Amino acid sequence: xxxxxxxxxxxxxxxxxxxxxxxxxxRQRSFPIARLNVLARSERDIFIDGERYSVRTIxxxxxEGIDIALxxxxxxxxxxxxxxxxxxxxxxxxxxxxxxxxxxxxxxxLVVPEVNPEDVKKHKGIIANPNCSTIQMVVALWPIYKKVGxxxxxxxxxxxxxxxxMAAVEQLKKENIEIAKTGYEKIHVDIENRAMPQxxxxxxxxxxxxxxxxxxxxxxxKLVKExxxxxxxxxxxxxxxxxxxxxxxGHSEAIYIETRKVISPENVRTILSKATGITVIDEPERALYxxxxxxxxxxxxxxxxxxxxxxxxxxLWLWVVSDNLRxxxxxxxxxxxxxxxxx
Length: 343
Fold this sequence. Notes:
Layout: E1 8-13, H1 17-28, E2 33-40, E3 44-48, E4 51-57, E5 68-71, H2 80-90, E6 94-97, E7 126-128, H3 132-148, E8 150-159, H4 166-181, H5 218-231, E9 237-244, E10 251-259, H6 265-273, E11 278-280, H7 292-295, E12 301-308, E13 315-322, H8 326-340
Parallel strand pairs: 1-2, 1-5, 2-4, 5-6, 6-7, 8-9, 11-12
Antiparallel strand pairs: 3-4, 8-10, 10-13, 12-13
Helix pairs in contact: 1-8, 3-5, 3-8
């Protein structure tokens, strides 16, 4: 920020799943707020954890006097930031955008505070929040990368319905109800106004984003391109498969890495256990490993099943789980805001 203050005027744009979580995180972390504008397409009151927020209709004038504007964004769609980010910057705000519109713009820093906090200083008014699946992956990879380097990553993500918004969560809920009505004898249902391309209850499907180059989806390419940008290393070979699973909140990732130098699983556990924002749960013999139900509403990235590839000297597997609405979106954005106001 240009001037250090005791408190800041903050705007949160969007009151879907991520916008609500942004408001919750701002309060929980006691972010120093002088004035809060909650903006969306229509006026209304919303309640979060018993606290009322008055939502105002967004317009360019909504950003007068705002220091930091947090855009909740909508994955896979053109978000409000495309229309209003420049208006906010023109009025003196720093925009932190959770949508995909600015992430690969070379003039816009793409930041995960545990990995590349120094990039915040390079902003020209807009800072991008990475994709949820990218955030948890780079948090897990970065401590290993710093120690021994990484040549290759092969990742399969298992992504929760909330990653596609509240409508997808509602779809999963309705499908489960309809299947339960049949006594679980019928698992094929077809509800109205389905938010996702396939049924999700009692099903998984490898379709997140649109299909494009080499048959990979846009979500899969995000993992490649965003990781390269955040870690400042385009030489890492990354291949991804992204899968939607019948989980409410919490993305899971099976990550295979080939390091530049040999490192033992024991050393990896030690390195990750000491890293900021990571909790290691790795006692599989006692059935202790990260699971999305346990990561929900938690801030850390959880890592377990750390093991070597018995056939490749430099090969390692990690199992990585995180709340996609918190560290994967709202928390990371607020942490960027916290970097902005540091001395």
